[in-house]
Recover the amino acids of this structure.
């Protein structure tokens, strides 16, 4: 069941929590609402659910306007951050609760309910815990039970509000993978709220980045990371290295640092954004840039080596980060305290007050220059 959010606005007193939000949520996909605290994610989720009314705009499920439908009639499953399991009911009874509470005409027979609960227990991989009470479960197990309970009535749509927010990092990661696998098997249309970019990028088919009650950008995780359309999305999604300077003679210049630019008007302020994986390190300046940096720290993080560097002879508000493979690290052998030069591969240039960046690919530019010589 697809969801259409059509020009939704919501004020609380004088405060605008949602400002004319329009959005398409494709059927069968997992969509993340990602944004900083207070950006309006939960408010939007509650309006989709029918737990909150909007001041203007419409919500459509599969093309039908449900804006006036009561939450009970929207056929939605919910999972919240704090497992709202009933303490006095067993796991099986918790899962059966939604079915038992259906009006008599819609309620399945007792054997059917038992069978459906057994199937859901299999699905969440906890059949052996059917008779336990919530107090006897771990946080991760409680969230799986909450999910089974939400799915018991076979909702068309599943809404999750920071479902793994209260769990520790390892359990979060396991549950993410598990939810993704479950989703791939059952294909419900799901929206989940998170302020954790890693979670959004890892789990979802589509990410909606929100800021101050507005949608900043919608894209697949890879598209969003590769092509952020605004400074906000850049800053919010992973680390970014910035050279802020002035354009002079086909170069962006600041102090001892410069980067060559294709055709940009002189004497404008500009900022160049570079992701850690879009930069390499060399012992000498390269043809397209001189970006001297001193190595401050080297950390081995899983499959990657992360190098933190401080500008030398120029300035940056934040430390620079460059990621390299272990093989590359062994080959180059950089050490703390040494002076190195960043070699930009791809960068994103914001000129003056432009909201959208222009992407520059130096490998391509250098190759083109070389072949035209
Ligand atoms: N019932 C309410 N009354 C007044 N203000 C509210 C109400 N609900 C939300 N707000 C305000 O609306 C804004 C958006 O809140 P919302 O909970 O949607 O943000 P969020 O992005 O989900 O944030 P978080 O990640 O912290 O949960 C916030 O500034 C919040 O204080």
């Amino acid at each position: 069941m697809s969801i259409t959010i059509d020009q939704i606005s919501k004020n609380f007193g004088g405060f605008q929590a949602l400002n004319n939000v329009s959005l398409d949520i494709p059927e069968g996909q997992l969509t993340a609402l990602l944004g900083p605290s207070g950006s309006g994610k939960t408010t939007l989720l509650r309006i989709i659910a029918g737990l909150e009314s909007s001041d203007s705009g419409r919500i459509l499920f599969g093309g039908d306007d449900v804006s006036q439908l009561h939450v009970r009639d929207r056929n939605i499953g919910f999972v919240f951050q704090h497992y709202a399991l009933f303490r006095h009911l067993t796991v099986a009874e918790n899962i059966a609760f939604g079915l038992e509470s259906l009006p008599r005409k819609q309620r399945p027979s007792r054997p059917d309910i038992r069978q459906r609960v057994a199937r859901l227990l299999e699905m969440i991989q906890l059949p052996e815990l059917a008779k336990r009470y919530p107090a006897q479960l771990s946080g991760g197990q409680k969230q799986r039970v909450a999910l089974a309970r939400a799915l018991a009535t076979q909702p068309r749509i599943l809404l999750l509000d920071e479902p793994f927010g209260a769990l520790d990092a390892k359990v979060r990661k396991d549950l993410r993978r598990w939810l993704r696998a479950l989703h791939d098997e059952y294909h419900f249309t799901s929206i989940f709220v998170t302020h954790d970019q890693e979670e959004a990028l890892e789990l979802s088919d589509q990410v909606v980045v929100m800021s101050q009650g507005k949608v900043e950008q919608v894209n697949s995780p890879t598209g969003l990371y590769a092509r952020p359309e605004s400074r906000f999305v850049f800053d919010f999604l992973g680390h970014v290295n910035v050279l802020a300077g002035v354009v002079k003679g086909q170069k962006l210049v600041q102090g001892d640092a410069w980067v060559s630019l294709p055709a940009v008007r002189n004497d404008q302020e500009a900022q160049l954004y570079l992701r850690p994986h879009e930069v390499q390190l060399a012992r000498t300046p390269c043809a397209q840039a001189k970006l001297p940096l001193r190595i401050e720290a080297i950390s081995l993080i899983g499959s990657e080596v992360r190098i933190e560097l401080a500008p030398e002879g120029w300035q940056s508000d934040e430390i620079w980060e460059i990621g390299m493979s272990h093989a590359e690290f062994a080959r180059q052998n950089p050490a703390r305290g040494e002076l190195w030069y960043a070699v930009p591969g791809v960068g994103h240039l914001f000129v003056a007050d432009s909201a959208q960046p222009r992407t520059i690919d130096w490998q391509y530019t250098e190759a083109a220059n070389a072949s035209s010589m």
About this structure: Residues 169-186 form the longest helix (18 residues). Residues 3-227 form a domain with the Rossmann fold fold (CATH 3.40.50.300). The first strand starts at residue 3 and ends at 12.
